[in-house]
Amino acid sequence: MSETLTTQAGQTVLLATFFVRDALCALDAAGIQEVIRLGPVTSVSYAPEEVLGIVNLRGKIVTIVDLGLRLGFPKAVAGPDSRIFIIEDSNEFIGLLVDRVDEVVELEAGQWQPPPANVNWGQARFFQGVCRNRGRVITLLDAGQILKLRNEE
Fold first, then answer.
1. What is d(CA 14, CA 12) in angstroms, rounded to the nearest whole number?
2. Between 117 and 146, where is the model more confident?
3. How far apart are the first and last CA of the chain?
4. Listing from the earlier edge strand, what are the strands of the sheet with 83-89?
5. For residues 98 and 85, is the Cβ–Cβ distance under 8 A?
6. Rounded to an integer, what distance in angstroms lies between the CA atom of residue 48 and that of residue 69?
7. What is the mean pLDDT of the chain?
8. What is the C-alpha to C-alpha distance for residues 127 and 5, in angstroms, rounded to an integer?
9. Ramachandran bin of 109, using left for φ above 0, alpha for ψ from -120 to 50, beta for the remaining angles
10. Domains and their CATH numbers in the chain
11. Is 73 exposed, middle or buried (0-12, 13-18, 19+ CB in 10 A)?
12. pLDDT tier, 9 (very low <50, low <70, confident <90, very high otherwise)
Protein backbone atom coordinates (compact mmCIF):
# COMPACT_ATOMS: atom_id res chain seq x y z
CA MET A 1 0.00 0.00 0.00
CA SER A 2 3.00 2.29 0.28
CA GLU A 3 2.28 5.02 -2.21
CA THR A 4 4.49 7.94 -2.99
CA LEU A 5 3.60 11.18 -4.67
CA THR A 6 5.20 10.42 -8.01
CA THR A 7 2.83 12.50 -10.09
CA GLN A 8 4.10 14.71 -12.85
CA ALA A 9 4.99 18.33 -12.13
CA GLY A 10 1.85 20.45 -12.18
CA GLN A 11 -0.41 17.52 -11.29
CA THR A 12 -2.44 17.81 -8.15
CA VAL A 13 -3.43 15.31 -5.51
CA LEU A 14 -6.40 15.40 -3.12
CA LEU A 15 -5.44 14.96 0.51
CA ALA A 16 -7.70 14.31 3.46
CA THR A 17 -6.32 16.29 6.40
CA PHE A 18 -6.89 15.58 10.06
CA PHE A 19 -5.35 16.16 13.46
CA VAL A 20 -3.45 13.62 15.49
CA ARG A 21 -3.07 15.36 18.83
CA ASP A 22 -1.87 18.83 17.69
CA ALA A 23 -0.21 17.67 14.45
CA LEU A 24 -1.94 18.40 11.13
CA CYS A 25 -1.53 15.27 9.02
CA ALA A 26 -2.82 14.03 5.68
CA LEU A 27 -3.41 10.88 3.70
CA ASP A 28 -4.02 10.58 -0.03
CA ALA A 29 -7.81 10.79 -0.29
CA ALA A 30 -7.82 8.15 -3.05
CA GLY A 31 -6.73 5.51 -0.52
CA ILE A 32 -9.47 6.24 1.99
CA GLN A 33 -12.54 4.01 1.77
CA GLU A 34 -14.65 6.07 4.18
CA VAL A 35 -14.60 8.03 7.43
CA ILE A 36 -16.79 6.88 10.33
CA ARG A 37 -17.54 7.87 13.91
CA LEU A 38 -15.98 5.87 16.70
CA GLY A 39 -18.45 3.39 18.13
CA PRO A 40 -18.15 0.31 20.33
CA VAL A 41 -14.86 -1.55 19.77
CA THR A 42 -14.25 -5.19 20.69
CA SER A 43 -10.85 -5.59 22.32
CA VAL A 44 -8.41 -8.20 21.02
CA SER A 45 -6.27 -10.13 23.51
CA TYR A 46 -2.50 -9.94 23.02
CA ALA A 47 -2.75 -7.30 20.29
CA PRO A 48 -0.07 -4.60 20.07
CA GLU A 49 -0.77 -1.57 22.27
CA GLU A 50 -1.80 0.64 19.36
CA VAL A 51 -4.53 -1.80 18.29
CA LEU A 52 -7.69 -0.65 20.04
CA GLY A 53 -9.66 -3.66 18.84
CA ILE A 54 -12.01 -4.59 16.02
CA VAL A 55 -15.41 -3.49 14.74
CA ASN A 56 -17.88 -5.08 12.37
CA LEU A 57 -18.54 -2.59 9.58
CA ARG A 58 -21.37 -3.88 7.38
CA GLY A 59 -20.10 -7.44 7.59
CA LYS A 60 -16.39 -6.59 7.30
CA ILE A 61 -14.09 -6.94 10.28
CA VAL A 62 -12.01 -3.77 10.67
CA THR A 63 -8.96 -3.54 12.94
CA ILE A 64 -8.90 -0.15 14.70
CA VAL A 65 -5.46 1.41 15.29
CA ASP A 66 -4.70 4.46 17.46
CA LEU A 67 -2.80 6.45 14.82
CA GLY A 68 -1.30 8.80 17.38
CA LEU A 69 0.10 5.94 19.45
CA ARG A 70 1.50 4.39 16.27
CA LEU A 71 3.23 7.71 15.50
CA GLY A 72 4.75 7.92 18.97
CA PHE A 73 2.27 10.27 20.63
CA PRO A 74 0.46 9.54 23.92
CA LYS A 75 -2.59 7.26 23.88
CA ALA A 76 -5.74 8.82 22.39
CA VAL A 77 -8.56 10.10 24.50
CA ALA A 78 -11.54 9.60 22.20
CA GLY A 79 -13.98 12.47 22.08
CA PRO A 80 -16.98 13.62 20.07
CA ASP A 81 -14.74 14.82 17.21
CA SER A 82 -12.77 11.54 16.96
CA ARG A 83 -13.11 9.74 13.65
CA ILE A 84 -11.85 6.56 12.04
CA PHE A 85 -10.35 6.62 8.54
CA ILE A 86 -11.02 3.26 6.89
CA ILE A 87 -8.31 2.17 4.49
CA GLU A 88 -7.73 -1.14 2.74
CA ASP A 89 -4.38 -2.90 2.79
CA SER A 90 -3.78 -6.34 1.30
CA ASN A 91 -7.54 -7.10 1.28
CA GLU A 92 -7.79 -6.18 4.97
CA PHE A 93 -9.66 -3.16 6.27
CA ILE A 94 -7.86 -1.03 8.84
CA GLY A 95 -9.35 1.89 10.75
CA LEU A 96 -7.06 4.71 11.82
CA LEU A 97 -8.34 6.63 14.85
CA VAL A 98 -7.70 10.38 14.54
CA ASP A 99 -8.57 13.18 16.94
CA ARG A 100 -10.55 15.23 14.44
CA VAL A 101 -11.05 15.66 10.71
CA ASP A 102 -9.99 18.92 9.07
CA GLU A 103 -10.62 19.25 5.33
CA VAL A 104 -9.78 17.89 1.90
CA VAL A 105 -7.13 19.98 0.17
CA GLU A 106 -5.81 19.90 -3.37
CA LEU A 107 -2.06 20.38 -3.60
CA GLU A 108 0.53 20.13 -6.33
CA ALA A 109 2.77 17.12 -5.90
CA GLY A 110 5.86 19.34 -6.29
CA GLN A 111 5.04 21.30 -3.12
CA TRP A 112 6.26 18.49 -0.84
CA GLN A 113 9.62 18.57 0.88
CA PRO A 114 11.37 15.83 2.85
CA PRO A 115 10.63 15.71 6.59
CA PRO A 116 12.83 18.05 8.66
CA ALA A 117 16.11 16.59 9.91
CA ASN A 118 15.09 17.18 13.54
CA VAL A 119 12.29 14.59 13.32
CA ASN A 120 13.44 11.35 14.93
CA TRP A 121 13.62 8.23 12.76
CA GLY A 122 10.87 6.54 14.77
CA GLN A 123 8.42 9.13 13.43
CA ALA A 124 10.09 10.14 10.16
CA ARG A 125 9.70 6.65 8.67
CA PHE A 126 5.92 7.26 8.64
CA PHE A 127 6.24 10.56 6.74
CA GLN A 128 6.29 11.01 2.98
CA GLY A 129 6.90 14.72 3.26
CA VAL A 130 5.74 18.07 4.57
CA CYS A 131 4.40 21.22 2.95
CA ARG A 132 2.89 24.57 3.80
CA ASN A 133 -0.69 25.33 2.86
CA ARG A 134 -2.41 28.58 3.86
CA GLY A 135 0.15 29.17 6.60
CA ARG A 136 -0.12 25.68 8.09
CA VAL A 137 2.35 22.81 7.94
CA ILE A 138 0.84 19.53 6.75
CA THR A 139 2.62 16.20 7.24
CA LEU A 140 1.80 13.63 4.56
CA LEU A 141 1.73 10.16 6.09
CA ASP A 142 2.79 6.95 4.35
CA ALA A 143 -0.11 4.56 4.97
CA GLY A 144 1.98 1.54 4.00
CA GLN A 145 4.60 2.31 6.65
CA ILE A 146 1.95 2.98 9.28
CA LEU A 147 0.35 -0.39 8.63
CA LYS A 148 3.52 -2.48 8.76
CA LEU A 149 3.39 -4.94 11.59
CA ARG A 150 5.78 -4.45 14.49
CA ASN A 151 7.58 -7.72 13.71
CA GLU A 152 8.43 -6.44 10.23
CA GLU A 153 10.18 -3.34 11.56
1. 7
2. 146
3. 16
4. 32-37, 83-89, 92-98, 60-66, 51-57
5. yes
6. 11
7. 85
8. 12
9. alpha
10. 12-148 (2.40.50.180)
11. middle
12. low
Model confidence over 21-58: pLDDT tens digits?
999 999 999 999 999 999 999 999 999 999 999 999 99
Question: How many residues are there in the chain?
Answer: 153
Cβ–Cβ under 8 Å, residues 19 and 98: yes
Which three-class secondary structure state does DSSP give residue 87?
A: strand
d(CA 21, CA 78): 11
Residue 139: DSSP 8-state: E
Pick the closest to residue 69 from 33, 103, 21 (CA basis).
21
**Of 100, 99, 78, 95, which Cα lies nearest the Cα of 32?**
95
